[in-house]
């Protein structure tokens, strides 16, 4: 089976974490979701070859085919004009630092069952300036007219997955024995 041919706006989910990213999987399992697996990372396709992602250091455009298996979901965009504008906005985030403050907030929420978190005004501001993967994807989708992922509390990769998993069009985890 060939890799998926992604369309602009397709959302890519990554499930098999290693190294430090395993901590994100642990955090997702602490949230009040049903049993996983849960994605540790999410990105958005800009076309068949490139994706926009907040990738641990900053917001970048990377090749989709980076050797990691992924699941592709195709959200119900209301029109191509809004999608193009949203992806253009997303490209404008390239170079922004990764949102480690938002990740700390997510960790506090995960370990406390949502009782501990940083101040809302701070997180809203920081997430706009320094997104992490799921806040970046949620912002692009909302600008494209897909309002199925709440922006508060800030979404985790699992929250984005829950909202979009019914729109899956490709599962690369099943390719080649993954």
The number of helices is 6
* Spans of at least 5 consecutive residues with low confidence: none
N-end to C-end Cα span: 12 Å
Overall radius of gyration: 15 Å
Q: Largest beta sheet: what is the strand line-up? A: 4-3-2-1-5-6
Q: Helix and strand succession?
A: EHEEEEHHHHHE
Question: Please, what is the average pLDDT?
Answer: 87
Helix content: 25-40%
How large is the share of residues in beta strands? 5-15%
Principal-axes geometry comes out as globular
The major β-sheet equals: 6 strands, antiparallel
DSSP summary, beta strand count: 6
By secondary-structure content and strand pairing, the structural class works out as alpha+beta
Textual characterization of the structure:
By secondary structure, this protein is an alpha+beta fold. Helix content is 35%, strand content 15%. It contains 6 helices and 6 strands; from the N terminus they run βαββββαααααβ. It has helices at residues 22-30, 80-91, 100-112, 120-129, 133-143, 157-164, and strands spanning 11-14, 41-45, 50-54, 59-63, 71-73, 168-171. It has a 6-stranded antiparallel β-sheet, with helices on one face. Strand 3 and strand 4 (59-63) form a beta hairpin. The protein is globular and about 40 Å long. The two termini are 12 Å apart.
């Amino acid at each position: 089976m060939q890799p998926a041919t992604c369309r602009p706006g397709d959302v890519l989910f990554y499930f098999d974490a290693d190294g430090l990213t395993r901590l994100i999987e642990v955090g997702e399992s602490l949230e009040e979701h049903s049993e996983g697996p849960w994605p540790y990372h999410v990105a958005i396709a800009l076309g068949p070859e490139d994706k926009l992602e907040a990738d641990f250091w900053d917001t970048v455009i990377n090749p989709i085919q980076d050797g990691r298996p992924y699941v592709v979901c195709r959200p119900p965009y209301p029109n191509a004009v809004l999608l193009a504008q949203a992806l253009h906005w997303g490209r404008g985030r390239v170079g922004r630092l990764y949102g480690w403050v938002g990740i700390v907030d997510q960790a506090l929420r995960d370990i406390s069952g949502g009782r501990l978190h940083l101040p809302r005004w701070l997180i809203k501001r920081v997430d706009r300036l320094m997104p992490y993967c799921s806040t970046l994807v949620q912002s692009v989708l909302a600008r494209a007219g897909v309002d199925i992922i709440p922006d508060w509390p800030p979404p985790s990769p699992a929250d984005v997955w829950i909202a979009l998993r019914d729109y899956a069009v490709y599962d690369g985890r099943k390719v080649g024995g993954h």
